[in-house]
UniProtKB/TrEMBL annotation, chain A:
Superkingdom classification of source: Bacteria
Signal peptide per UniProt: 1-20
Record has Signal as a keyword: yes
Cross-referenced Pfam families: SBP_bac_8
Official protein name in the record: ABC transporter substrate-binding protein
NCBIfam families for this protein: PRK11622.1 (NF008633)
Biological source species: Companilactobacillus keshanensis
UniProtKB keywords: Signal
Gene3D superfamilies on file: Periplasmic binding protein-like II
SUPFAM superfamilies: Periplasmic binding protein-like II (SSF53850)
Automatic annotation (TrEMBL), chain B:
Bilayer-spanning residue ranges: 9-31, 70-92, 99-119, 131-152, 192-211, 231-252
Family annotation (Pfam families): BPD_transp_1
Name the record gives this protein: ABC transporter permease
Organism this protein belongs to: Companilactobacillus keshanensis
Domain ABC transmembrane type-1: start-end pairs: 64-252
Cellular compartments annotated: Cell inner membrane; Cell membrane
Length: 414, 264
């Protein structure tokens, strides 16, 4: 009987022994060092596999990484592994690794911006030194004085990020429902809504595009300066954007479902727009209407426009976590993604016609021409029109505050 | 009599509408090119799309393989843990039985995000993150409540009466287990295996967090497409997902019933 009890006890303890045995393996290897120049990075990176962690829901961007960037890296002797993972989960993973005191990890390059960058920087999860000497294409195509290269929604970049995506909110309206007369200001939007109740809506923040639309309304009603200068506290932001919240509340009863509910995702809103239940949808891609038309999702009357006073534009970036095992290969991947060759391919419709993250003055003429040609062909906005109608983002700290205030004073009013 | 029949028919019909309609929509999405409200049927149907996507997409094949690998591993580990636990819970009275009964359900009660984040932390501490065993044990955690409950409900029917008889007649413990316990308990076992397989196949966050990017399963690939509204791609993944889940389930079912008949 006693022998049996001992065996039971051992059986219970066995997993602990197994785990204990494994624990020796961790914590011994240190994350690699960031190389100091591109040349040494190239040399060090040969034969390595670099991982790219980022949002996996955009099939055009996935395809671009797989079909264009990966073969370019292969020529340099480096393998690329793309892992589709939402940025919140990536940060969770990195935080866990940090708390467990793990010095090296599998995540080499992440796709990040705004609030998430602020969080990552606060927790010091990212490594710095992503500068011109390490990323030569940054020197060629991105000017040091470009505000978007210096700060990411109000957070100083300090060489922790490299521009990757250039996005600007555009409105897509149904020509038939608007009769060709698009609401290019918040006033026009409100009066159209009053005449055509139930035909407009927006995605509920904190959805990416829904939140951008609310910020755009803030710019329309109180102007960028008012929100930019407001202190980043709830009371301060509320005081500044009170007229905007009033505007949204005035609009509310004329929205779809009388503003009692809002679409949860932009996918849902796009579907409603495609079905002509609503007259307008939004996108962060100026070619979105064209690609959706080509796909047969939107009908031919989908037309792209922007507000006269401009729409929110923002950048997304690439960063390298401190724990990356492969910082040399990460630097090579970032430089390759930023190259003219890769970005020129990215202009193709099948890769989402993405605008390069280059600074305005440094965009190669061939790329501008290509984009303008596509714009003409698809009857959408040219680069020049877009950049003239671009307004900067508010500080990342204020975005969650605005989203909270919207929930409190618009969604849950009355 | 007739009214009873009609009622029965109605119930079947309701069931068919509730279960088969969504399946049908997913199927149509995978083969349709344009399908807009308010048209009832897609305007444009392309049967080849599904197969082209499946054959030309190397990623999909790789994720299929890693999904299956993890699912099989999870089923084995789950049954290894769940069977003794269910037997202990149904056959014996011991101190802390009630507590164990509650503990079994904990993975379902605590929000999975909290469980997974902490599990990830522990896995990193012990160097198990990214390993096959690490991911499989994360999946197993979520399979255990189902597996134990299914086995327990089945085992409690006869308790250990037949096992005692078998031992009395001179059978060894192993003989008793394989010739008496398992055949009597085959329904429970079948349910537990199927449920673990399905739960493992549908794990998303656990696979990503603990897998360290080494296991890009079908659900990991599918999830971003559904949230982005790429319903067509998601539907293709969805159908493949159903096929690889249903076919093994059917095979297990055939195997178990066949075995049962031979014994009877």
């Amino acid at each position: 009987m006693r022998g049996k009890k001992l065996i039971v006890l051992l059986a219970f303890l066995l997993p602990l022994f197994v785990l204990g045995g494994c624990s020796n393996k961790s914590n011994d290897s240190k994350g690699s060092e960031m190389p100091t120049s591109y040349k040494t990075a190239l040399k060090e990176a040969k034969g390595k596999t670099v991982t790219f962690y980022g949002y996996g829901g955009s099939d055009t961007q996935n395809r671009w990484v797989d079909d264009v960037v990966t073969p370019m890296m292969k020529e340099k002797g480096i393998k690329v592994k793309r892992v589709p993972m939402n940025i919140e989960d990536i940060l969770k993973k990195l935080t866990n690794e940090k708390e467990a005191n793990k010095k090296s990890g599998n995540i080499d390059v992440v796709w990040i911006n705004g609030e998430n960058f602020l969080t990552a920087k606060k927790l010091s999860l990212l490594s710095g030194n992503l500068d011109n000497s390490l990323i030569p294409n940054m020197k060629t195509y991105i000017s040091g004085s470009d505000p978007d290269a210096k700060s990411d929604m109000g957070t100083k970049i300090n060489n922790m990020e490299v521009p990757f995506g250039n996005a600007q909110l555009v409105m897509i309206g149904s020509k038939q429902m608007f009769n060709g007369d698009y609401p290019t200001s918040s006033d026009k939007l409100l009066s159209w809504a009053k005449e055509n109740p139930g035909k407009l809506t927006y995605v509920a923040p904190p959805d990416f595009t829904g939140s951008a639309f609310v910020r755009n309304i803030i710019y329309e009603t109180v102007g960028f300066d008012a929100i930019n200068k407001a202190p980043a506290t709830k009371a301060g932001v509320y005081k500044a954007i009170k007229p905007s919240l009033d505007y949204l509340n005035e609009l509310k009863p004329y929205l779809w479902q009388e503003g009692k509910t809002y679409p949860k995702t932009s996918a849902q809103m796009d579907k409603m727009f495609a079905d002509h239940q609503i007259a307008m949808t939004f996108s962060y891609n100026q070619m979105y209407a064209a690609t959706q038309r080509a796909d047969g999702k939107f009908t031919d009357d989908a037309h792209t426009f922007v507000f006269d006073k401009g729409t929110v534009g923002n950048y997304s970036y690439l960063a390298v976590p401190k724990t990356s095992d492969n910082k040399a290969a990460a630097a090579v991947l970032i430089n390759t993604m930023l190259s003219k060759k890769a970005e020129t391919q990215r202009l193709k419709a099948k890769y989402g016609s993405a605008i390069p993250p280059y600074s305005g003055s440094k965009v190669p003429a061939s790329i501008t021409n290509d984009l303008n040609g596509q714009a003409k062909e698809n009857n959408t906005l040219t680069m020049d029109e877009l950049s003239k109608k671009r307004v900067p983002e508010v500080s990342a700290k204020k975005i969650p505050i605005i989203e909270d205030l919207w929930k409190e004073h618009v969604l849950n009013a009355d | 009599m007739a009214s009873k029949k009609i009622l029965k028919l109605l119930v079947y019909l309701l069931f068919a509408v509730l279960v088969l309609m969504p399946l049908f929509v997913i199927f149509m999405l995978a083969i349709s090119k344009t399908w807009n409200y308010p048209s009832l049927w897609p305007k444009w149907v392309d049967w080849g799309y599904y197969f082209r996507f499946l054959i030309t997409n190397a990623e999909m094949q790789a994720s299929l393989l890693s999904s299956m690998e993890l699912a099989v591993g999870t089923v084995v580990l789950t049954i290894l843990i769940a069977y003794p636990t269910a037997m202990a819970l149904s056959y014996y009275d011991f101190k802390g039985k009630k507590l164990l009964n509650i503990l079994v359900y904990l993975p379902m009660i605590i929000p999975s995000i909290a469980v997974l984040t902490n599990m990830d932390f522990i896995m990193i501490k012990y160097g198990l993150n990214g390993s096959f065993f690490g991911v499989v044990s994360a999946h197993t955690l979520f399979c255990l409540p189902y597996a134990i409950k299914l086995l327990y409900d089945n085992l409690i029917l006869w308790k250990d009466k037949y096992e005692v008889t078998s031992r009395n007649l001179g059978a060894t413990p192993l003989q008793t287990f394989f010739k008496v316990t398992i055949p009597l308990n085959k329904n429970g076992l079948q349910g537990a295996v199927m449920m673990s397989y399905i739960v493992s196949m549908t794990q998303y966050l656990g696979t990503l967090l603990i897998g360290d990017g080494n296991y890009i399963t079908l659900s990991v690939r599918m999830f971003p497409f559904t949230t982005e509204g790429k319903y067509r791609i998601a539907a293709v993944y969805g159908i493949t997902f159903m096929l690889v889940t249903l076919i093994p389930l059917y095979l297990i079912d055939v195997w178990v019933t066949h075995k049962g008949r031979k014994l009877a």
